[in-house]
Each structure stands twice: as structure tokens, then as C-alpha cells.
Amino acid sequence: MMKAFDYVVESIEGDYANLRQLGAESDELKLVARALLPDAIMEGTKLHYEYMEYSIVE
Asked: Rounded to the nearest 5 degrees, what angle is found at the Cα of 45, between the Cα atoms of 41 and 53?
């Protein structure tokens, strides 16, 4: 069974974005290539990750 996670885009640095997992005990950021994320992201965008795919949460 695949787990699902929710993230917020903390910052965008060139071809990468730093994501913070919502509800996690740690404030550690996850560095993700922008090619794996939806095109319309910006700082503050909320994302849902499930089945190896990110989608924007509105």
C-alpha cells in the first residue's frame, strides 16, 4: 500500500524546490526536482503526493 503525503513549497531554487511535509514532527525539507512537480507551483503552493505523483491541492 502506497502512503500519501501533503507538502508545502517552501522555496524554489532554479531546477529544484524545497518541500516541507505538513503534519510531520520534523521541519526537515525535501529537495525535489521541478521536473517532477506541476508546472504551476510557486512558494506557498500546497501539494499532495500519492502513487509517485505530485498534484496541487486547491
From this structure: 65
